[in-house]
Amino acid sequence: MNISIITVGKLKEKYLKQGIDEYLKRLSAYAKIEIIEVPDEKAPEELSDTEMLQVKQKEGERILSKIHPDAHVIALAIEGKMKISEELADGLDKLATYGKSKVTFVIGGSLGLSSEVLQRANEKLSFSKMTFPHQLMRLILVEQVYRAFRILRGEPYHK
Ligand SMILES: C[S@@+](CC[C@H](N)C(=O)[O-])C[C@H]1O[C@@H](n2cnc3c(N)ncnc32)[C@H](O)[C@@H]1O
Q1: Which of 10, 17, 31, 125 is deepest in the core (most CB within 10 A)?
Q2: Predicted ipTM?
Q3: Which atom of ligand 1 is found nearest the CA of 125?
Q4: Is 110 labelled a binding residue?
Q5: Phi and psi dihedrals of 95, rounded to 5?
Q6: What's the predicted TM-score (pTM) here?
Q7: In this structure, are residues 134 and 37 in contact, taking their beta carbons and an 8 Å threshold?
Q8: Rounded-to-integer distance, Cα 83 and Cα 11, Å
Q9: Is 99 annotated as a binding residue?
Q10: Which residues form the signal peptide (predicted)?
């Protein structure tokens, strides 16, 4: 399976980078995985609603330009569907079974994802009703994808 994770902005925090690199290394035994960073737009606090929309749209265009036409897209969105880890694992397994070998996860920038990206998504996945910083979300996502593969292989993983 080819998994890509499209994210907005450069990862700045060293501790997150170390954690993500560790899971990417572990995941390489199960799948081909890459993280694609698209540039973020400046989003100062005092933006109007129209300006916020423009930021999301510009970032959205960059995200959409990186999505392969055949990719099954899973957008991370607070209002999306919550799943238990086994359901995420099962979903990835089904995609592989039905020949959908390209899976793209998308994480929005500080203002979230544009409606165009959400429309392109085949699924919207929520990790809880709480808002996580987008850079931390990368680490949570790679851990859950790793967990999914361990579950599918029936390999032991701490609860
Ligand atoms: C700082 S959040 C954006 C918050 C923005 N107000 C919104 O509602 O989307 C940045 C990105 O992280 C991801 N994210 C944050 N919390 C999440 C959660 N609980 N479940 C799924 N994705 C989340 C989403 O992709 C979101 O676009």
Answers
A1: 125
A2: 0.97
A3: 21
A4: no
A5: -60, -45
A6: 0.96
A7: no
A8: 26
A9: no
A10: none
